Amino acid sequence: MEMSNEVNHTWRLARRPVGLPEPDVWSYEQEPIPEPHDGEVLVRNHYISLDPAMRGWMNEGRSYAPPVGIGGVMRAYAAGRVVASRHAGFAEGDHVVGLLGVQEYARASGDAVFKVDPEVAPLPVHLGTLGMPGMTAYFGLLEVGKPAPGNTVVVSAAAGAVGSIVGQIAKLKECRVVGVAGGPQKCEYVVAELGFDAAIDYKADDVGRALHEHCPQGIDVYFDNVGGEILDAALANLALQARVVICGAISQYNNSGPMKGPANYMSLLVNRASMTGMLVSDWLPRWGDAAKELAGWLAAGQLHSREDIIEGIEAFPDALVKLFTGENNGKLVLKVGED
Amino acid sequence: MEMSNEVNHTWRLARRPVGLPEPDVWSYEQEPIPEPHDGEVLVRNHYISLDPAMRGWMNEGRSYAPPVGIGGVMRAYAAGRVVASRHAGFAEGDHVVGLLGVQEYARASGDAVFKVDPEVAPLPVHLGTLGMPGMTAYFGLLEVGKPAPGNTVVVSAAAGAVGSIVGQIAKLKECRVVGVAGGPQKCEYVVAELGFDAAIDYKADDVGRALHEHCPQGIDVYFDNVGGEILDAALANLALQARVVICGAISQYNNSGPMKGPANYMSLLVNRASMTGMLVSDWLPRWGDAAKELAGWLAAGQLHSREDIIEGIEAFPDALVKLFTGENNGKLVLKVGED
Prior knowledge:
Two copies of one chain form a homodimer.
Chain A: E1 8-13, E2 26-31, E3 40-49, H1 53-57, E4 78-85, E5 95-98, E6 105-109, E7 113-115, H2 123-127, H3 132-145, E8 152-156, H4 163-172, E9 176-181, H5 184-193, E10 198-201, H6 207-214, E11 219-224, H7 228-235, E12 238-246, H8 267-270, E13 274-277, H9 287-299, E14 307-311, H10 316-325, E15 331-335
Helix pairs in contact in A: 3-4, 3-9, 6-7
């Protein structure tokens, strides 16, 4: 058992945030490195994934997953290397991904982590395009959005970890793809580098008018990561029988006031359209097959993946806030160790 | 060609309403009785249907149907008798239903009206349980809501023309049925006379808490006729994989301010649920079969239909307002003639 640190550094949730998580919601701890029990592995985390869903996990109250407890290590996906195994399926040196938390060392049930192959792609990609965000894009678009060739697909947070993959898969499925993103760089990126047909800068453009211009036949599939006014603008521009995929609502996660509901929801009636919520964990049994298909597209150069890597576990609180202020470029991950 | 009047009385839209339609939005006219052209019939209307959708038809702007033009006869379903026919499919004396307008005599294409049999049910029933509202309930519940035996079905405006049929069909399909209605009489009616399992009085009860009590396993199908706070309360109480049918939003139709969007829509994500809009006209080719099944249930005493009949075409503006203030008891129709 080889270790790069004598101790385990952890970020624990000290109190529940109101609005954007301020530094005082966290406590940074030095702790003994845990010992794996029977059926468990000890993982040295190399990369910690920063995802919008983490904000929801910090709130009290019923959701699809229980909240992180006060005093608990913050929940996060992470990728790392097995440094000790008491599970027959894993050996020291295996690379794995799982909900390993914002810490350097994680003790986890072998049944709750997945082996990944760093030869297929670098570890950060296994947290992004080949990980939870990629799976979210893949199943949310294909299974819930059900795009047909020639359909117009619109995706918000288009330069983000999920949105960038949604748009590229939609292009592979012969759709017209319009992205909504914040700022000229992100808009340029999704069109020039990812091949979207058009991009709308929600910070500069009238999104409703721009959607009307870029989607003259209406929107067949709207993949929503943001909620709020962009969701309303999309609803106002639906085509008949449109499918709205509710994947997230990042514009609303740090609201301290009431949630903004989509005032234009009656467009669902006018257009006989549907709005359906999705959670990627429902497709867990099919993640392996989806990852293979996505890896094939990556290898063939048909899918582009971009990671925004921030160094050092100390940077966690600031890095998480960057996700909500839209300062990241690509899948945001925190590098906390290496081989 | 027999006629009971020398003239045709019509209600025309004089201006677009803001909020509840005031009397000054209408003009009441005496006009010559029109002559049918080739392919048309002339119908003496006996009953005019008053439906919530009419409020939407009075607004300017894009919807599923064009707005009624300023100066146009108000659009409405009506049932009456053919008094002159220049269409091979109809003879004088046939009873028909169609979008014949708020007037005593209507000239209409024979392709746009349907023959109905007054032996099967009185004409007002052909505007309610066997007409558009019944079709809305039938297809909205069965095709969009897709209730399974044992499911919990909640319907708002439960004592209304659509809601009362939704709940009764859901009972026939072996569901647990909870209605939301305004006032103790309507609640008593849906439970004691229509056989619902429970009713919630939205004027007296905390709807969210009451839904939580009456739907301990969550709501599998919510059939929404009202929008607003009741929709939000239902969203907060969904079961996994729930289906929300968006049929109407009567609480919002007379808003002069902005539409209230459902703030709890992220419950769709948490519960992997869907919210789907429906328009009954999409099932037009299957109306005949549905009407036969509904008529069978009526004849067998398995389905109860109640009509609230107001006398006289002069009463139209006040009668329409009753629909939005919830003063009607059962399907609201205006009697404007007889055989």
